[in-house]
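Throughout our pipeline, every protein is held as a single compact record rather than as scattered files. The remainder of this section carries one protein's record, kept here as part of the documentation.

===
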Amino acid sequence: MAFWNKHKPPKELRVIKTARDEESINNAARDGFKPLIKKVEPSNKIYSKYSIIQNQQTGEIKVIGDMRCREWDLRENNDFKIVIDWTNYYPYEFKSPFAAYLIPPDIKIGERVFIEDLIEDFVGAFWNQGDTWRLSGCEAIWTGSKLKIQYTPKMYCSRIIG
């Protein structure tokens, strides 16, 4: 887990778990939890980048994520050529296209909780080279029908420079 995802719940907050497949959701429902079902929808604000350079003599490749490394490799070794220029992609993969927050039966309206595995994509960190990563956990408030996520970039988003 990256440093920007180490938000720990305050001791006084209840932790809300997330189930990410049909079997886990049904098991939790049988145990008395109310599954709050959500679509897993990747955000276009979350992405990483890569470039691939290839040694023209050996055929070997290097996958590069840091712009400085690629330029250094190309300067230092004329055998390498760019075969895929900088390309953005969504770097996360989830088991199913839906998930559920597992709401305890005794939760109170207005109760502040901590979601340890967010279904929604919120930016947890961004790098001045362009990459962004998703936040894993965040505080929320139970409204009686949904969890109102208390995301604020100032509190939950880290800036990486380098």
